UniProtKB/TrEMBL annotation:
One MF annotation (Gene Ontology) recorded for this entry: lipid binding
Pfam families: Oxysterol_BP (PF01237)
Region (Disordered): 145-191
Protein known as: OSBL5 protein
Coiled-coil portions: none
InterPro entries in alphabetical order: OSBP_sf, Oxysterol-bd
Ranges of biased composition (kind: Polar residues): 167-188
Transmembrane feature ranges: none
Length: 232
């Protein structure tokens, strides 16, 4: 987070390599981490806390010692599992036999989409991204529902006009015309127009997704409040 300089040892010149300005900081993605008190013993921040503390104090010798202690414990654990014939089953990582490398099972390597992605968080070691696509999906589904009802409305109006123009006695035609109160043309409708035509209630899926959106919105507000409390 600080300035980084390149120092030329031969002539003593120093060149600015990196300067995280205020603009750069404002563009950063906000980090959400699990509180230290809520982390388990094997989560990185808690597991490596003594190594991190030594590095922050500039004590590289102490940091190396603490790192050796952790790695030796891991070696002993692996040795005991081999002797007992216990198979190690990672919860969050998978082994690629082709490259002989380990990969995080839930890795998300796509670029951050500021128009669709709301927040990224970790829960039980699983990285998750909260997205806005559910709102778009619900809006599209709502539009489809309204369009379907408008189509049925137009069809009803067409059938009504056909009955009015059919070769029937004049008095019967008048009765048919009086029974059709539907306008002869239906233009593009807004949500208010839909309510005027009796489209107040959409399908059950729309209502379910609307409730889901409300739950997500409440969760986001709760996260924001918690973050503000942490900052204070």
């Amino acid at each position: 987070d600080g300035e980084v300089h390149i120092n030329e040892l031969k002539n003593g010149n120093a060149e600015m390599f990196w300067n995280p300005t205020g603009e750069v900081r404002r563009q950063r993605l906000k980090r959400h981490i699990v509180l230290f008190e809520e982390q388990t013993d094997f989560e990185s921040e808690r597991l490596w806390q003594h190594v991190t503390s030594a590095i922050n104090k500039g004590d590289q010798h102490k940091a190396t010692q603490e790192k050796f202690v952790l790695e030796e414990e891991q070696r002993n654990g692996a040795r005991e599992r081999r002797e007992n014939g216990t198979e190690w089953k990672p919860l969050l990582f998978r082994h690629d036999a082709t490259t002989n490398e380990w990969h995080y099972k839930y890795e998300d390597l796509r670029p951050w989409d500021p128009l669709n992605d709301i927040a990224q968080f970790e829960k039980n070691g699983i990285l998750q991204t909260m997205e806005r696509h559910l709102s778009t999906k619900m809006s599209n589904h709502k539009t489809t529902c309204i369009n379907n009802q408008i189509t049925r409305h137009k069809r009803s109006a067409t059938d009504c006009r056909r009955r009015k123009t059919s070769d029937q006695p004049s008095n019967h035609s008048q009765n048919t015309e009086s029974s059709c109160s539907t306008p002869e043309s239906v233009q593009e409708l807004s949500d208010d127009d839909g309510k005027y035509l009796g489209f107040e209630s959409l399908c059950a899926q729309c209502g379910k997704e609307m409730n889901h959106l409300k739950e997500i919105h409440s969760a986001v507000l709760s996260l924001q409040k918690a973050q503000q409390d942490i900052h204070r």
